[in-house]
Protein 1
Amino acid sequence: MLAPLRRLIDSPVQFILAITAVRILWHLLAPVGMAGDESYYWMWGQHWDWGYYSKPPFIGWFFGLIDHVPLPKTWFFKSCAALFSAGSLYYLYRTFVVTTDNRKMAQYGLLAIALSPANLLFSSILTIDSPLMFFWAGAMYFTAKLTFKSAKTPDFLALLVFLALGHMTKQMMMFQIVIIILCALTLNRNLLKKPLFWLTLILSFASLIPPILWNANNQWITFQHTGHHFESASPALTKSLSRLGELLATLLFLVSPILFIQLFPAISSSIKRLIPNLKSDKATSFFFLYGGLGLLVMLGLIFRQRVNANWPAVYLLGGLGITLIWAFRTPLRTQWFKRGLYLAGTLSLILMTLLPLLEPLAGPLAEKGIKPQRRGWQGYPTLVSQTYDLLPADVTQIAFSGHRFTASQFAYHGKIIATSETPLKSVHLWNGSSHIRNQFDFFPTPHVGEQIAIIVEQKKASSSDQIPKALQECLSEVTEVGSFPIHFAREYPKYKIYLAKEVVKWPISPAKLSH
């Protein structure tokens, strides 16, 4: 695999353009349809606001902007994810060059990231993680320039832009401020004496003023949601080890087994190497602060709660830098590192081959007991088309009793298939409580006095497929009109569809109660 790439990889920009073009063409096969998070964030973009339930506003604003581009929506959204990934690859390569001053080593670092299954997936799913990785990598590069080279005003300005956009993307970006200060403290104290350094860090938080003001008027809901991520789980050793095994197994595949296994001795070696003097190996120190330290914190966090696989994603970039430097210190480690590239590329090729085959092979696989994932992309386009065909054309609103992802998928695919003969239907999500549960609670509620379709999600055979009593009391003359499974190869989840002649009332949205 590496031999045909050697000539191309000697021009890293051409390599990045080539692999990005391949991925954009691959997305024409629609191997990765809209994931639940993607359709949910797309709905945010249909309702522009200064802030949103769980995240700062960048992803909602971005979806709202690109939704107006007159290109096939799903393909274009996936292409945007691939372009964000291309930017990440470019800045990572430049960071490796600046810190190691070794272009050949940097090229291998670029290969390690580009060929990994994780990078393929980040190039395929337009959630907060694709832009976050881009802004994180960009800010890391300009921090490296300021730390290892002479500090120039354009580099401070570029760092400010990447930090500000990163803050608007995900709360995780704020941790990079701490890393930058640690880099200055340990590797280049002259930065601490520059007013422009502190001004850059402080001004980057100005981008958070709009969502903070929005939160002040909306029960500080984003802060509450973020806090829920750090609620402790069972402290039992067996549970902790189970969570640890789950995370490590996922990362083992996403990074590729050999490279991931090399990460741990690399981190251990870097700690021993840096304890006497952090400046003894500035490149290793830089990547330890940007990766090794965060990964160790994430592994420690496992013993109090579950850690999602995407949480340590940004730290894996720095972790790879540690691994790269460590591996190239001896021929044997370098040999295994290169084998890791082969394995990473092979896993990515397997993914690229199998994903387009999932839909046509769904039937035969189901007969063998292998069924499409519960909340995956398979089935939603057909399910939405079937539901639209079943409902009268004059029904213009749908309310769900189920998961926000399902409601979002119906909204997204409904807009795609909507025509003058099949008008677009507004989609709403029944809450049934006095607490804000998701962004749907900020969206407009159904119109009273008009017809409405009610869709009840039945997760499994033992779950109810009846309209909740409180919702039933809001409707008049309800009749059952049909039922569909999420996918022809699965019996559950199943969606029972009702039609109400009129919405007689609708409770005030929990998001409006504070106003």
Protein 2
Amino acid sequence: MADIIRLLPDHVANQIAAGEVVQRPASVVKELLENSVDAGADRIVLVLKDAGRTLVQVTDNGKGMSPGDARLCFERHATSKIRVADDLNAVRTKGFRGEALASIAAIAQVELKTREHDQDLGTRVLIEGSRTRGQDPMAGPPGTTIAVRSLFYNVPARRQFLKSDGVELKHVLDEFHRVALAHPDIAFQLLHNDQEEFNLPAGSGPALRQRIVGLFGRKYDERLVPVEESTDFVRVTGFVGKPEFAKRSRGEQYFFVNHRFIRSNYLEHAVRKAYDELVARDNYPSWFLYLDIDPAQIDINIHPTKTEIKFRDDRAVYAIVHAAVRRALGRFNIVPSLDFEPEPAILAGLDQSPRPIQAWRPQDLGAFTAPPRPSAEGWQQLFQMGMATPVDEPVVPAEQPRVVPSRNHEVEPGERPVFQLHGTYILAQLRSGYMVVDQHRAHERILYERNLKLLAQGAGISQTELFPRHVELNAADLALVQDVLPELRSMGFDLELFGGRTVQVNGMPAEAADEDPAKLLEQLLEQLKHEKGSLRNERHHVLARGMATSMAIRAGRTLSPAEMHDLIDRLFACEMPYHTPGGKPTLITYGLDELNERFER
């Protein structure tokens, strides 16, 4: 039998290796920026075309490379960072494996220009699909410029898997944020399609605070609480967000170990634990935390992108991070003092966000302006509902009667008793028991189905603002708004780009006319940021759900009997009235048999 095992050609092996290192333009941005940092640059410029799929170019004023190094750097496992295996125990640079440039050159057209500071001439290298097309001397400034064009030009199947420019730009900005936050002492500039997105000067004094504000906007200046804790084992510095600015989806959460961005569920738990009793469970605070530790105490060589590491003593790190954050929150008098212990049943139903409870407004129920007469027919069907459902489970019968409200009956609401409990739940009598409706979840289901119809029809009603309002966004949010602008307009947002990172709001959805545009957009974008689906239908569901979650009436809003009747009528006019879009029950039923049994004990 003939031999069938062969060594792969280098260019094929590099393309396969590129699959681990380069998934999208953001991967190229990460590797090139980190190389510039390792080269000792104090100014780095990133230039993008079409979110990086056409061009990713990084220019730095680092130490540059000799002609020999300029050619050798594109070979696999060519590195200046380590010489022997023991060097892995003392790595403080970003890269060290020597795989990035070889992988990038395997699936793109690459041009490298570099000159050392003490040399009169530099070197220009052209590589395409791992094959060197030329190497010549050149005149130019000291430092290095590397341009990566036509990413995946020779792997069209990979190129087809790239998302829209808006999505790809968001991933690029995520990587840019991580490197820029890790090095506030370095000046960074980012240009996309000839427009400047960021121009971040090298920090001085409170450099990290300046960098955070430069990346995410001036509003973050008031949201930050400094953290500083030093031990012989590890030093923890940085900032955490004030609890009142926690978001309903994950916001800006960054861990850096020795100036390297990492992900760690273990450390995340330590920080979240420090916020116990300060934020609701489904809210997420922001943090920017930096750990300085002896490299011998960590292992960074466990993941291709080096975003995961192992600590030799992870319990000690957990305890120190938790204590540092808790002490920072306490030092700034953020930990609340309670004069009494509320009943757990009350706390379970209340929205524990720090916003003051406001009086309910008619427009909070969507198009509801004056309460229409509720449906006696619908309520009669509801009253006749069976009671075969267990106590704590939502009603999901196989063939549940649809309750379609009718406006033709002259019936006063008082004939159908309802009761609001703790400003959170609505109690309504049934033939063989009673029903408890969560007013927030019920309204969320109503708005969700309404928003889906608006997105399908593309005909949302917008209420024009008397004076247009301006909302300043960070670069990632602006890119996301541009990507979903048609859908936002379908739901009633009248938006236009005003210049820079500012969006002008000319009109709001009719039911959200009194909402703060900046807050509503921020909540909606947070929902979208973590959505993985790319199909139009999936995005419609995310947008509809995000709007519904942001605009649904909250716990603590007092409703009149007419408003409670209308809410229940419209809930049972929905296609799926028994669950929220996220699958949580909107109502629970209790039977008389259950009550009788409780009293007979």
Protein 3
Amino acid sequence: MLYRKIFFCFFYLSLFFSSGKIYGQTNYETLRSVYENFDESDKKALHYVKIYIQRAKQEKNYPELVQGYRDATFYSNDKRLKIKYADSAVATAHKTDDKELISTVYLLKGSLYYFYYKNYQSALAEYLKAYQYSKDNKDDYLKYKIIYQMGLVKSYLGYYNEGIEHFNECISYFEPKAKGNSHRNIIYNSTKGYLNSLHQIAVCYRNIKDYRKADSIIDAGLRFSKIDEFPSEKAYLTKCKGISVYHHKDYNSAITLLQKSLPVFNKEDDFYWASVADFYIGKSYLGLGKEDLAIQQFEKVDSTFQKRQFIVPEILGNYNFLIKYYHNQKDSEKELEYSKKLLKADSILNRDYKYLSEKIHKDYDTQILEESKTKLETRNKWGLGTIVILITILLIVALLAWKFYKNGKQIKLKYLELENNLIQQNQQTSLSYESVSIYANSVLSEDIFNDLQNKLKEFETNKGFKENGLTIDRLANILNTNKYYLSQYINDVKGVNFSKYLSTLRINYITKLMYEDPYYLQLKVQGLADECGIGSRQNFSDLFQEINGIRPADFVRQRKKEMEGQGGILGALS
């Protein structure tokens, strides 16, 4: 630090007395050496960075000016300023027509939105721009940073297996460079990439309940020889270890490890993982029978949500604990307050998930497949290239034929499984409905619970779900009840939200009709959708497959085949 101050004093004096000489002869690497060893978000470095930026502006050296703005985002401790500097970097990069450089700054801006704001929609928009400009570039480091960021979005959306594929690619790329003998900056960046990829892949494995794999990865990260040099990454892995030991019911160790990681998250304003850590500390206190301490943690998680308007599905159960607690305390005002907050959190998740899911698959995954196809088509068409393409085509045809055969078998199995369920339902003498004993799992009062149980039973019996455009507000009015209570009852008893509950009733109803009455096998998809109250044919097809595990067209085809076979047997017997 003393060396940097002395260096800067001489540098500044020479700049004051002979600016022409300093701008003409001093290289940018020397200017950066004054501040490059400052810690991230150390605003003292900005004083030096601004001189670097001024130099690049006067010389109209746009690549170096971009570097200056990137450095400013790194050393600024104000997240709004970080975005401002990133915007300047983007505008300047476009003046260079250097696609690789433009891609880099879009990726930087997306990462700022992700890390400091947890604004996934804005982050993904920047990542997709970065991807567009990165095509055909030779910078593998940039390529794998984009792969990593897309993995983060997929993990957030719950596409954990796809996320695992992304992070495995990143680990394969970063690990050798982190343990190699390259330049210290390459080793530093690769080590961060490696440790962050370990953290994220462990999160994915935990969410698909492969705890053994997650534990192995976490331990590998914490044993890494340079882990102490990377406090942020160590905190992430320590947090993962805390959640892991919670699942093994070692609640005291879980609390210790999670509390150990929190100071780093709070210092870096990483409210995503701070909320997750607080949530699992609360659950650990519950495991120890310390309910009051648990509620303090859950209310802390809620406070973060109210401030940031951000939540992840993993901690949505936070509100169920609070609702149950205040119900038992007979504090109806608090119970209703947290019921409303639960609905608000759920609506935010639904909004984000729809947008992100469409964009990530349409604008990223589909383009990758298209590019792969284009590269195959533009390969050398003569000689050995032709042979390779022909062999590739034959292999693809064989693979498609095998997949078609396998898919046909899977459709047949799914149909038989669905048919068996329908037959069992028909053999029941009365509607299967939840008994009052389920009330023990609800946070509602017994009177409200029983009232909603009777009304919903009548609603289902009378097929009220067939009404097109039915909303929870509309149904609550029909049943003469409160929509918050209605939502809570459906969540408690059915184990799903209102939308899923309504979709399941509609699809089960139309599936039964299609199985029992040949008339419905003749209808088009839109006709089937209209019959059960679903407005969109695409939405109907998606829901039918999601709930039944088979597309409506495949169900119709299998049912017709079966009925033709039955007709042939009957004709032969008569």
Protein 4
Amino acid sequence: MKLDFLKKYFSIFLTVYIVVLFTKVVFYIYLHKEFSDFSSKEAFYAMLWGYKFDFAIAGVVAFLATLFDWSKKLFALVGSLLVVSIFLLQIGDILYYNEANRHIGYEITDTFTDASSLFMTAYGQHTILTLSSLSLAIFLFIGLYRWFIGFPKTKLRKIYVAQKLILIVLTVFFVRGMAQHIPLNPWQSNQIGEGKLANLALNSSYNVLYVLSNSGKKLKKMKLPKVDKDKITVAFRELYPKDNRKQTTPQLKKPNIIFFFLESWSAVNMKSYGYPKATTPFFDKMLKKSIHPKAMMASGHRTTEGIFATLVSYQNPLGRSVAKSNLQGFDYTSIIKILKQKGYESAFFQGTSKETSGTGSLAQDLGFSKSYGKHDIKERKYSENYWGVQDVDLYNFALKKIDGMKKPFVIGINGATTHDDILPKGIEPKEFSKDRAYNRQLNALHFADMALGEFVKRVEKKYPNTLFVFFADHCGGVRGTTFQSYLIPFTIYHKDLEAKSYDVILSQRDIAPTVYDLAIGDYKKDNINFSGKSLLDDQRFFADYYHNGILGWVEKDKILELNLVTNKERCYELRGFKNNEIECSDEIRSFKNRMLSFTEVSQSLLFEGKTDKFIEYRNQK
């Protein structure tokens, strides 16, 4: 029949939609704690509300499969493989979301590089879900193949081209979100009004499709609410007041400097930040004899995002990384580049492959002369986990390289122990939680803390004039609120610095100015182009984070979260390290202009390649 081509198309279309809807239900059930604030009725509504994204991916898969409908076997094979691939991608996204609190997006381009590590981590940490999904995928493939091979093949005749044109029009219709006047964008999921429900509405397959289809294009600035120039001027005067000096900063004499990008260390999992058990006894002890704020906000959920915000003291592109994008080629003011000009030798060390997510190349672009990864580390005390060498072996390797470096030196270290939850043989796990998976994660953290302590002791003994800068590159596996999924530890130690605690929340952007003031001079007097502030020489602090369409802003003990699509505001008060929702007061609403002004200026200059102009906004009269 002439309409058989439509029957094939919509058979696969409907199959994909059912598969995606099923995986959304699994997503909700498996991550039910994430959505505990909503009823099952609200959750299911959100799943159905996102039908445009589901229809879009269903249309693409259906069209690709029908390109092979001139052969029954090829049609059945390709159609089955595509549907199963969508199923596995959706399941993989559940595991990724469990770790990063967001759907797979631009990270998909790193999948093939780290494929084996990703699979083994999924198998090790989510064994039941992984095995059951693989088994179901096999049965799904067999069932679909038997069904699809029963469809008659399409004859190659004159009408064939017309049929394909009709299917192209249909597919474009679905990909554009059907009747809407703009192309379907993943951020439109936030139109549902609730950030977490938006994550249920959006399926990762479309998110990945959107990213891949735009991968060859330049990374573009996200559209933000408009802010008047006069309001921007007022905001920057409030953010960077001229009388913001505190005291004379203690000056160290050309100290060696070590930046510890502590992989996936989440503050909520540490006793110093509210967890009931001592998972990181060394860090807790170090905190008491160091200079530190109440806590710090991470600037992203990837190592490259943490590296950029820390070293450049600048906001990341919202929800993205400059790494492996058109933005990486711009010239940035970096604390490492400044230190190199002062005579420092530099190197960056990581326990994973040095090009995982482009980390090594970004680190070198930002000033580190050398970059080392797991393949450079030949001598090992322990076997690798699924991502790389254990931190003990990484630190041993780094110490040997330090011995051969000119002094003073500056190095960055990013481990791999907490990139996984596998303890080396011979290391007995402790009971930090009754939840087995969570307990494995906390034991990996505990082992990493032990390795950190041993390394610091050895370095301080050999090189007593060393400034140790401890902080997480980002959070990982957080069981908590959006705010808590960006809350990281931070402290800075040198034997000659008097310990002091400051009751403020810092941003990763504040690390570089603080280190500059301690090791080099006065970042304000020297007019250094940082957007962050020095913990030792500033008074008014603010921190920001971006998560799935939500822009968060922290001042003192108050938080404003703004949905950039719906303009809906949510306000919180910090009690300890927990954010409790409260009614939005005039005080918290006043954050909005500062938040939007800072973000608009930061993002505009970033995408224009003019971040060096930020200092002009900061210093305006």
